[in-house]
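Supplementary notes (optional reading)

For those who missed the lab, this is the record we used. Protein: Cullin family profile domain-containing protein. Length: 790 residues.
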Amino acid sequence: MGQSCCKRLPKVDHRRRQTDSIVSQRIKRFKFKKNEQPLMRGNDEVIVRQNEAHTNIVQKRESRKFVLKNDCGDIQNLTFESSIEMIEGFMGKLLEFLETGEIAIQNKEYVSCYTKVLAQIEDLREEDLLKEYTLQFDNFTLVTRWLSKVFDFVDRNYVKFNRLESFVFTALGLFRDIVFTNLKQALTSALLISFQRHRLKEDVHWEFIHKTLQTFVDIGYKQDVQLKKNGNDYCWSGVKDLSKYRDVFENKFIKETQDYYSIKATEWAQNLSCPEYIAVVQETLEMEEQILVDYMDQSTKNQLKLALNKILIEWKAEEIITRQESGCQELLKNKSVYLLSQMYLLYSRVEPTLKYILLELSNYVEELGQILISNEGLQKQPIKFVEKLLELMAEIQEIVLKCFQNDRKFHLACENSFLSFMNKFSETPQYIAGYCDHLFKGGIRGMTENQIEDTFEAVICLFRCIHDRDIFIKVYTKYLAQRLLNKTSLNADAEKSMISKLKIECGINTVRRLTKMFTDIELSKSTMNDFKIYNRGTTEFRGVDINVDILTSGMWPEKTAYSCKLPPELSVCSQKFSLFYKEKNGGRNLKWLYGSCNAVINTLLFNKTYTLTVTCYQAVILCLFNEHERLTVAQVKEMSCLPEEELVRQLKQLCNPKMRLLSKDKPKVPKFAPDEGLEVNTNFKYNLVKVNFIPKVVYKKKHLQKMTDIENKIKEEIKSERALVLDAMIVRIMKARKKESHTELITEVIKQIFLFKPQPQMIKQSIERLIEKEYLKRSKDDLQIYIYIP
């Protein structure tokens, strides 16, 4: 086939004869092996086989046509003769260029020789080298594209079916072996010098840098290598192999970058303040990242990012953040929101460095908290104390939101700081419960629903930060009972919302009593409606209108209920209701809690009518003066059947100098002697028509200190309840595990108890109790191991 093709060539001059030789050599390289059956497709789909006669090939070649695409994508149908002429023309042009170095055609720049390229640029350096190298590589790319069309038929048929290297792949390999291999060191050096000049704020030609770096990537293509048109240019594509790019350029670039910025980081850390250092580093990182995006292969991004983060951020993080005069603490004290946010943005790139900011923030919060809880003035004002805590928490949360992008780690650090200083003051749980009582009695008046919810959420945040949550629940339950019984709560829906939030934090079992208290109040209203129907539409007897709340035993705070002798007006009402309740509920017993009862009494002997709100005991005392003008303390005690302690407490309220409803013989003496006389103060005057004699809860530490007995009782109750909780928890754990060591058991109990923080000594005492009760026993082989007894 090769010989027949060569005989058809017309006579040419010396250059043409050399071209003939080149063409013959090219065609001989693609001679078919024995029994091969390659396909040569034209318009007539002729199949040429090796064993056909030579004359058949000559007869058929006149009609055979080939398909060729030009640079614009147009399809040209070429005959065999015209194809040979095109190849001959291309070879002649190349030969002319190789002999003279010049070519008189308009696309002269498309043709270049590899060895001539190397000779022209191997002595150049720095920017001149990059400029000439990129120009020659562009020429090489165009020449390769131009020549690939000549060998397109061979590539698509013979090369493809024989799994040989394509023309484009071979051309790229030649350029890599002849030009790139000899220039790679000089090119890398020129690139590194250009980057160094840029870092020194000198001008560089990014076009040459970008094109040079792209050739480093193109050289590595080793599979499916193609040239694709992109606008007016041709681009290399294929399966990437970045080993050349990494070995020749990337590794050296990363190393030089590390060395350069190690020196600069030390210099900046010594001469700049914390905000200045952060600003310079951010500017540097943005500059380097922009270079990556615009001019380098994206595979370099991760490596360079790690290197820069380690040198500029992680290496000097602790020194910069903890700097005394301009570090994180100083920025927090000055409320420098912008600078703190910039600090977070920088160091969040390397998450382990955030621990230094977290530590500084924790120390800042604990310092402010310690000042707050040490303020003796605030310690005497529970409401003000809690308000200051809420203000501090709101301030810190705003800092976390604006400066640290609401990062959960910073919220946890702040909660831990609050937990640390709040639990140093033992009254914190009681004060928070008292603040809740203040809110429900009037603190939420005028607030919108959203404001109420926000306030409750803030209180719950404080609740999370206390260890003794069971004390809070105990005191909260006590205050809730008073609000429900005295009808002093402003918003029942708000009460239920708060209970729902506590249920989420503590579980349903913890707030079960609170929920049951609300249920009792609702059922009591239904019961009173039935009682009204039972008494023919009225609940009034002998001028007294009665309203009764039925409380489930064990669900409400137990309060000492002293028995007393009710006046006839009240006695009739209680008897009527007791009879009705027993008939309705099958003989259930009622226990009247007079200590929790209130009464509203209208006066008739003063210049104007007053409405007095009094306790049940006060009502019993006042009703005695309906029958007697003057009585001694001893007589009042005998007629009312009240204990002396409770009697004195109630008389103090009635004889209060600010609202003196009863007069005593010795008004300046605070004590009440048995023979001291009492009578109604006929000169009683008050600015308001409604007068309340029920003792108000005063949220002051001075007042709380007077309630020592009540506090001690609550503490004893909590102590006993904690012992029961510990016993139950230990039994539950041992029942599941059957056998456990002493250390592991204590660790697990501490982990599972959330209402309070049990001390190891408390757990040991509980274990000893359970051993005595034969729930547990010690192992005979190891006394530090406990065994559950079924």
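If you only remember one thing from this example: The first strand starts at residue 65 and ends at 69.
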